[in-house]
Write a structure and sequence with these properties.
- 2 copies of one chain form a homodimer.
- Chain A contains 11 helices and 19 strands.
- The first copy, chain A, is α/β, with parallel strands linked by helices.
- In chain A, the strands form 4 sheets. Chain A has a 5-stranded mixed beta barrel. In chain A, strands 14-16-18-19 form a 4-stranded mixed β-sheet, with helices on one face.
- Chain A folds into 2 domains: 260 residues, Spore Coat Polysaccharide Biosynthesis Protein SpsA, Chain A; 73 residues, no CATH class.
- In chain A, 28% of the residues lie in helices and 29% in strands.
- The interface between A and B is medium-sized, with 34 and 34 residues.
Chain lengths: 344, 344
C-alpha cells in the first residue's frame, strides 16, 4: 500500500467510428451507456471513487468533450482541457505538470470496460507502490486470445510487487500472437499506467525534452476557471503527437508491469461490446423493443424501432436514428470503414 | 384460340402478415410495389391488358380494398365489392353471375408475380379454349422444388389442349412432395382458373346449391354505382366460406389442367420476394439507401434509413417505419408468427 491517495488521471478521446452508428463524431464512445446504465466515462470515475484509496479524479480531454464531462462527472473533478489532440504522452504530461511531483498518477482511458472493480483496485494499489519507487508502471492485462489489435508486454525479472518489462511488442500478426499465448509471460498493454508525477516528467525530459519543455510552458501560462484548467495553446501547438508507449515506456530504464486479470475490454467493436454485456440463456443481448426467434449470441441495440430477428446466430443489429447496421460478429471489425462511419 | 375475348376476373385479398412489416393489415400485399415499380395488383392488370386477347378486367374485392383499387386501376375496370370475405368460391361466383353465361372467365389472384407474360398469355389462351368447351380449367404451375405450402395437381389423360385432372392433393408433407417431383406429372395449383361463367354456375349449383342460390340473390339485388357493383349483403351473409378448389374443382367431372411454366411466384414470404427480384453479381437485392460489404444473396428493403450490412449470406433486412425485421432466408416463413405481424 502506498502512503498517499492515488490520483486518477482519466483520458477522454475516441473517434466514434468502430461503434458507429451508436457512437458518432458528435457522440463519442466514453459518454454512452454501452454496458449497463452508466456511461463508460462514468464507470471509469466510479472505479476510482473509493476515498480511502483515490483522490478526486482529474480528467484530460479535448474542448469537444467538456460539455459531456460537465454533464456526467460529479463534483470535485478537475478537467484539464488539451489545447490540441496530441496523443497520450502530452496529455499525461499536462496532468503531471499540474500535480505535485510526489502525486502517484493512475492513468486510465475512459472508454474501456472492466468487469471486476476489486481486481482493478488491487492492481492499482500494486502499481502505485511501484510508482512510488519511481517505476514507470503498466497494467499487464491477462490475455485470453491471440488478439492482433493490441500491443503486448513481455514480463521479465520479478521485482517487489510486479515484474520488470522485458519488452514491448506492437500489434503482432496472428501467428506471433498465438506464439505469445503458447509461450506465456505476455500480457496486453491496455493503456493503464501508474507514475509518480515528478518521475514521469523527469523521464519525459530525458527522452523527449522538447515535449517536456512545451508542456511545462503550457501549464505555466494556463488559465483556470473553477474546476476547468486551460493550458496555453501556443506552446502546446508545436508538440509532435506521440503515444506514452513510444515517448516514455519503451525508453524507460525502470519500466514495470503489474498483472491485471479484471474482465477488461476496450469495447473496440460491436463484437467486443456484445461480449461485455450479459446474455440470456441463448447468449442473446437486447436493448430496446425486440422479438427474437431461433437466435443465439445475437446483439440487438435499438434506440426506438422494434427489431424482430429470426433464425440468426452471432449477428449484431444496431438501430440509431436514420442508420441501421446489421453485421456478423466477425464483420464488426469492418464497421469503421463503412461510409456511414468514415464520412461523419 | 377461343372465338371471344377472355374476361379477366382478379381477386383481391391477403392478410398482410407474411410480408410484414412492409405489408400490413392497412396496406395489403397486392397494392405494394414489391417487384419492380408496379404493384402486384397493377402487374396483374398489365398481364391482361392486351385488347386483342382480353376484355377489360373485373375485380372482386372487399370494401377495405376499394380505395386502393380506385387509386391503382386504370379506367374501365369493374369492381365487384364482396359484402363479406367468404373465400374464393363465392367471390368467383359473384363475378360469374354478373357476366353473360358465355363469358370465358380467367380468375387470377392479385398478389402473385409472373416473370414471363408471354407464357402466361399462351396458357390463358389454352385454358380459355378448354373453358369454352365447359371444362373447369386450372393452371398447372411448373413445380421446381418440393414445396409443402401449395396444393398439387396430378395430370391424367391428355385432352385437346391440356390434360384431365387425375386428382388434387392438398399441401403434402416434404417426403410426399419430393415423391411428386421424382414421379412427374404433378404441378402446383396456383389459384389461376378458367371457366365459362354459365358452366361454373351450373357446376356450383350441382355441388353447392345453397351457395349458388345465395350468390344469385345477392347479384339480383345488387346496387350499381358507376364501375362499382355492390351485391346485396343479406343473402351473402349466410354463405359458408369455401375455396373454389373444394367447392367446385375437386367435385367437377370435367376438370382440366393446362401447363404453365411462366416464372410464377406467390411471393409467399420474404425469401420468395428476394428470389423474384433480380440480384447483382453477388445475388444481393437492395432498395433504399444501403451499403453492403462481404454479403451474398442479401435482400435489403428500407423505406428511409440507411442500412449497412457486413459479412452476411442469405439474410433479409426490412425497415418500415417503426419496425425492423432481420431474418435468415429460411426463417422468413416464420415472419407471420411474429407478434408484430400477428397483432396488427
Amino acid at each position: 500500500m502506498p502512503d498517499r491517495l492515488i490520483q486518477p488521471v482519466i483520458l477522454c478521446g475516441g473517434s466514434g467510428t468502430r461503434l458507429w452508428p451508436r457512437s458518432r463524431k458528435s457522440r463519442p464512445k466514453p459518454f454512452l451507456p454501452l454496458v449497463g446504465d452508466r456511461t463508460l466515462f462514468q464507470a471509469t470515475l466510479d472505479r476510482c471513487a473509493d476515498p480511502a484509496v483515490f483522490a478526486a479524479s482529474m480528467v484530460v480531454a479535448g474542448k469537444a468533450h467538456v460539455a459531456d464531462i460537465a454533464a456526467q462527472a460529479g463534483e470535485g473533478v478537475t478537467v484539464v482541457v488539451e489545447p490540441a489532440a496530441k496523443n497520450t504522452a502530452p496529455a499525461i504530461a499536462l496532468a503531471a505538470a499540474f500535480l505535485p511531483p510526489d502525486a502517484i498518477m493512475l492513468v486510465c482511458p475512459s472508454d474501456h470496460h472492466i468487469a471486476r472493480t476489486d481486481a482493478f483496485v488491487a492492481a492499482a494499489q500494486a502499481a502505485a507502490s511501484l510508482a512510488a519507487d519511481d517505476w514507470m508502471v503498466a497494467f499487464g492485462i491477462a490475455a485470453d486470445r491471440p488478439e492482433t489489435g493490441y500491443g503486448y508486454i513481455l514480463a521479465g525479472d520479478p521485482i517487489d510487487g510486479g515484474r520488470r518489462i522485458a519488452r514491448f511488442v506492437e500489434k503482432p500478426d496472428r501467428a506471433t500472437a498465438e506464439g505469445f499465448l503458447a509461450e506465456g509471460g505476455y500480457s496486453w498493454n491496455g493503456g493503464i499506467f501508474a507514475f509518480r508525477a515528478g518521475a514521469f516528467l523527469d523521464e519525459l525530459a530525458k527522452h523527449r525534452p522538447a515535449m517536456a519543455d512545451a508542456v511545462r510552458q503550457a501549464v505555466t501560462d494556463a488559465l483556470k476557471e473553477g474546476q476547468l484548467v486551460r493550458p496555453a495553446a501556443g506552446p502546446f501547438a508545436a508538440i509532435e503527437a506521440e503515444s506514452v508507449d513510444y515517448a516514455v515506456m519503451e525508453n524507460a530504464d525502470h519500466a514495470a508491469v503489474v498483472p491485471a486479470d479484471m474482465g477488461w475490454s476496450d469495447i473496440g467493436n460491436w463484437q467486443a461490446l456484445r461480449d461485455a454485456r450479459n446474455g440470456d440463456e441463448d447468449g442473446n443481448r437486447v436493448s430496446g423493443p425486440t422479438e427474437l426467434v431461433d437466435c443465439h449470441n445475437v446483439l440487438v441495440d435499438s434506440d426506438g424501432p422494434r427489431v424482430s430477428v429470426i433464425g440468426l446466430d452471432d449477428v449484431i443489429v444496431v438501430v440509431d436514428g436514420d442508420e441501421v447496421l446489421v453485421t456478423s460478429a466477425d464483420g464488426a471489425q469492418l464497421v469503421g470503414k463503412l461510409s456511414g462511419a468514415a464520412n461523419q
